[in-house]
């Protein structure tokens, strides 16, 4: 399909349109709205969202390895719907239907947009009343889900999206032909390359992934460069063609200001998708993404739809005693009680108020940290042997080691300095015991995904010589001699003692090789300049190299205003630094 096939894209199910009678007059007579399934009630929504480890047997009959494996299943399988998730589902459901109100496939004004041309409609913008030149006043809404890492924002939004069909296939509506595919939702993750251009490419690839074989939007639009305005225009055109219900842009904090043209340019890029053609947009990110809103939203309110909502996700609150000495029940109580059920130690320990308070103290109400800490405590209890009981001393001991880097910050939070949590986004949770295990393991251990990110330095430390060998092999593909390759690779490697960011090291050696070759070329040219007549320089012409040559790839990327990192990533020449084997 395209050169992004290896990327993972969130997908959902396809279905044929079944039209439902609508109570709200604004929703009646609109095939796109009537094809949306009925809203789930609270009970059905809970059943659809809840998930838990499926093991129901007697753990006392299992060996240590099986019980340790069950503990690892908790984080993968456990997910508890909370009150905020029900609100978010209603928000999505209403937003999708309202967004389609101004996009009735049989509306004359809506179809007038196609007659005028979507490019012309987009370039003309909207008038003071919010109408575009086709006379359409779009009803699209949008919201931002911003909050602390570990609160489950991305998982929540993904799970809710997958409750809706991703693609609805229309054939006829009330006796009239209607051969259209309606993409109800699309999930796009911001790229690690931090560029808006790569974000748009991810969008087109996600569209092709959703529609399946035969869709070639990436080939048509994704491989072309352009300004932010042009990229947004292409995305709007395709979103309109596929009748997109809502676009979710996840991990928005990855889009760096320097790559996006500034805070306000990024906000403009997102709001352009909403205002002119009427695409509801949801953006999700951690506290790092607050830079997008800190000044831009305050200074550019006229560009933000009136219906725009900002959701800031805070950590869970621990219940406090009231005047009668009774403790209020909070989401933290519901969460920890549900989590505590999944004990795979030989001795089950009931959850007491003391355990609740102790767990909250160490994780300060962040669910992801609570789950990890609970897993680590169980693993330690099982490895210690004996009756394998979870105790307060064991929780304190594991937390003091596993959360060592976070505890000073958490202590400031306990003193009331909540603003310090923004620093949390710049900290990597360092799970000391697992890192030591990786370094000391005599057998082969494969680490992928998020777990690999959490233990990257431990993995990297054990693989220092393999990293150097890979770095030399990579450099030799660009260099004229193996001696030069070894020299450059060794210099970059030793500058960080082999513990620097791996992608940065690849970029650094590529830059040094290019500089070395340019210096060599200038020297040779200077020595021979008197021997040859001057030739007219062809601007923009690449040197004669094979297209697979890394020098060619980097040079070609420069002409497209791409960084070395973006060029190498685009050509799939930089490996995932986290997928190393521990020997």
From TrEMBL:
Phylogenetic lineage: Bacteria, Bacillati, Bacillota, Bacilli, Bacillales
Protein name (database record): AAA family ATPase
Domain ORC1/DEAH AAA+ ATPase: 146-286
UniProt xrefs under InterPro entries: AAA_22, P-loop_NTPase
Organism name: Paenibacillus anseongense
């Amino acid at each position: 399909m395209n050169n992004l096939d290896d990327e993972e894209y969130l997908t959902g199910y396809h279905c044929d349109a079944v039209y439902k009678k609508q109570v709200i007059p604004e929703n009646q007579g609109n095939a796109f709205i009537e094809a949306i399934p009925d809203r789930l009630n609270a009970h059905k929504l809970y059943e659809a969202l809840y998930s838990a480890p499926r093991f129901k047997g007697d753990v006392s009959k299992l060996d240590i390895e099986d019980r340790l494996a069950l503990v690892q299943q908790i984080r993968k399988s456990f997910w508890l719907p909370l009150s905020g998730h029900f609100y978010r589902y209603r928000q999505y459901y209403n937003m999708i239907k309202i967004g389609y109100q101004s996009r009735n496939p049989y509306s004359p004004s809506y179809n007038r947009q196609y007659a005028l041309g979507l490019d012309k409609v987009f370039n003309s913008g909207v008038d003071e009343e919010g109408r575009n030149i086709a006379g359409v006043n779009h009803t699209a809404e949008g919201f931002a889900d911003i909050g602390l890492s570990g609160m489950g924002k991305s998982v929540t939004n993904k799970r809710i999206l997958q409750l809706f069909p991703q693609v609805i296939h229309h054939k006829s509506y009330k006796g009239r032909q209607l051969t259209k595919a309606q993409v109800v939702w699309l999930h796009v993750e911001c790229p690690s390359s931090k560029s808006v251009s790569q974000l748009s490419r991810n969008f087109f690839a996600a569209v092709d992934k959703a529609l399946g074989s035969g869709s070639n939007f990436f080939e048509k639009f994704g491989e072309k460069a352009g300004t932010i305005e042009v990229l947004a225009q292409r995305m709007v055109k395709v979103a309109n063609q596929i009748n997109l219900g809502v676009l979710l842009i996840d991990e928005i904090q990855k889009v760096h200001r320097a790559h996006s043209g500034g805070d306000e340019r990024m906000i403009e890029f997102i709001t352009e998708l909403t205002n002119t053609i009427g695409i509801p947009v949801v953006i999700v990110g951690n506290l790092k993404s607050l830079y997008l809103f800190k000044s831009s939203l305050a200074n550019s309110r006229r560009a933000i739809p009136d219906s725009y909502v900002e959701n800031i996700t805070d950590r869970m609150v621990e219940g406090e005693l009231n005047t009668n000495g009774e403790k209020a029940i909070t989401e933290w109580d519901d969460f920890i009680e549900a989590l505590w059920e999944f004990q795979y130690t030989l001795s089950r320990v009931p959850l007491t108020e003391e355990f609740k308070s102790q767990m909250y103290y160490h994780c300060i109400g962040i669910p992801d940290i609570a789950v990890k800490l609970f897993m680590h405590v169980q693993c330690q209890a099982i490895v210690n042997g004996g009756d394998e009981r979870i105790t307060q001393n064991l929780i304190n001991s594991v937390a003091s080691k596993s959360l060592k880097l976070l505890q000073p910050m958490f202590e400031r939070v306990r003193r009331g300095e909540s603003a310090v949590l923004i620093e949390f986004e710049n900290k990597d949770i360092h799970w000391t015991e697992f890192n030591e295990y990786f370094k000391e393991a005599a057998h082969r251990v494969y680490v992928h995904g998020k777990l690999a990110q959490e233990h990257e330095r431990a993995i990297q430390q054990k693989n220092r010589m393999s990293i150097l060998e890979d770095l030399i092999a990579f450099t030799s593909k660009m260099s004229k001699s193996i001696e030069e390759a070894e020299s450059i690779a060794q210099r970059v490697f030793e500058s960080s003692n082999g513990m620097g960011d791996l992608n940065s090291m690849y970029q650094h050696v590529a830059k040094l090789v290019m500089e070395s070759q340019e210096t060599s070329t200038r020297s040779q040219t200077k020595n021979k300049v008197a021997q040859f007549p001057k030739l007219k320089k062809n601007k923009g012409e690449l040197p004669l190299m094979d297209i697979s040559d890394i020098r060619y790839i980097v040079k070609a990327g420069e002409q497209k205003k791409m960084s070395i990192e973006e060029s190498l990533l685009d050509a799939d020449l930089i490996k995932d630094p986290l997928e190393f084997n521990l020997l």
